[in-house]
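=== RUN LOG ===
request id: a7f3
mode: sequence -> structure
chains: 1
length: 303
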Amino acid sequence: MVQHITIPRGPIELAADLHLPLDGGEAPLRAVVLSTPGSSVKEQIGANYASRLAARGLAALVFDPAHQGQSGGDPRDLEDPYRRGEDISYAIDALSTHPRIDPRRIGVLGICAGGGYAVHTARTDHRIRAVGTVVPSDIGTSFRGFQPDGPAAALDAMAEARTTESLTGNLTRTNWLPDTPGDAVAAGLTDIDTTQAIAFYRTERGWNKHSTNRRLSRSDSLLLGYDAFHLVDRLMTQPLQVVLAGRVGNTGSYEAGMRLWKLAPNPVDLMIVENAGHYEMYDEPAYVDAAVDRLAEFYTNHL
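=== RESULT ===
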């Protein structure tokens, strides 16, 4: 059962879906807030995991980030890692007052960049009682590694570009991915991870009209300065579950997940899904079901 709800977030609202067990009984439910990958909306990866968690007896809330999808917020297509973390806390505000939810049994599940956002939020929002991640990424580390002349030079160029935007009033956007498989081939992007990302996001398999595949360019300076795991070793005391794809590709999620596992003060379970690639963990039923079985056990034990 899915309830379509709105989450107050200051002057705007977040669009959200609350997945509830069909037979949840009368007792207040354990709940999990999902933090989804960059560019993703609630009907995509988040729904794949939320629906399965609900089938295993947990309430699961997935939402569109502020400035994206069906949520409010201007300018559109902003990917602000700090606001992404605040979105999670606003989602917990909403769950804490829901009549079906036990406010003291709320966890978080972060996927890809959403894994980093979830971890970063859990450090300081200790209403989160358990932290689960699937192929977690530290988007700051990833973006710093993408800059051919280094992140400092990239920030200089971004500063000039933002000045131009201020003078002209024209905001620029960039693609997260090539729009089509053909565009990727033309750009020489034929590695397996990029190919699988496009197969999910830009074909009928995982496409959604509310996922624009555009990122406001001024987001990038925020991402370059972000460290999702800063102070995890000192502040994130909650139990941690890490699920990684067994095929180590070029997304950096395997390396980030292992780094998180070593940093966390209270690591509980590390699962490596053999043969799976990063993007296959988004919707390949055998891999997702295996991950959710393990995650459901983790949340049942720690919420």
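=== NOTES ===
The first helix runs from residue 45 to 55.
The mean pLDDT is 97.
=== END ===
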